[in-house]
């Protein structure tokens, strides 16, 4: 029995580990921005936090086109359909670019929006300064995500990882020069961080595009040949496939943004502990996200071959790997909660003991969070592999906002449980999503039901 799954384990880890590395590297780039702008000043740091949250929400909404095309490419490759590979990838790039241009006015004139949301005039002004530069980086970010999907479907995930890792030292160096005015450069503060981010994202896109064009086994796809020519049937198909993914990501991201706001209603120490616990959970989540991407490719390959048994074995393998990592993370959270929280605090801070006590308690729920969050993101990857995105979008919206958010609010404020009640509500919402998504996959697609939406590209 174990021998049956061994090839799937090897193939999944070969795909997934580099993707995990790339997600962690991308997260490290964001952390380096936060740390270095924090060294520069408190007001610029506050502006950066607000501005990057603004960009992330728009990125979530626009990332569906680049993410959704991964399963489509994997399926087309398994069928030997080179034309579909080219058409789907090109139109995903088109849609990523169009979306980036359409939302740019929101970032260019973001100051009135941020003022209306209750930000201070200085924070809103500095945030707009940042967004007017960094906002242009949304295009290379989304286009780069599409090329990541293209290369991942071709099982070239190591290149994706190395390109992402290369951006980390470049980002740190440019931040050091432009934020603080070193080496004779002007001291630009938060605008310097924006220029650094835009530069890194542009370089990364250029590297991915150059590799995608050079790769000998991919030249048959002629990806960039007559790139300017529209393909409206493929355009519509990728739009229908990708938009629900973007809305799903927005629903989940919005859930955590709302939890941040509500935790602030409870208290400052609770908000600090919540932010630390969520940051710790986000780091381990990158492993599940990488495995989810691998699941999309593996299941997409099975769909292309029409092999339901192979699909089931691949799905069992990636789910088991994700659960194994989740159990390991749970053990760390439960055994070393105080030490994990203390890593984020100055021991001399008089508030540190209280924050550690709150944060250690929240890590118990973060342990439960690991299982449910891992399950739901992996199953979303499986469903994207069979090009099923509309119903999962509805499941996500129901689970997060009809179930999770009311339960979180009710426990935290109506029942008076406080911070722990808020986290328990998040666990409930994610658990409902995981169960419904699992039923969607295993009662339909895994049985060989190939009636899931399949874009005619």
Automatic annotation (TrEMBL):
Keyword Transport: yes
Pfam families: MatE
Superkingdom per UniProt: Bacteria
Regions that span the bilayer: 46-79, 91-110, 130-152, 159-181, 193-216, 237-259, 271-293, 314-336, 356-382, 394-415, 421-439
InterPro entries in the record: MATE_fam (IPR002528), MATE_MdtK (IPR050222), MdtK-like (IPR048279)
Residues annotated as signal peptide: none
Protein name per Swiss-Prot or TrEMBL: Multidrug-efflux transporter
Source organism per UniProt: Paracoccus spongiarum
Lineage: Bacteria, Pseudomonadati, Pseudomonadota, Alphaproteobacteria, Rhodobacterales
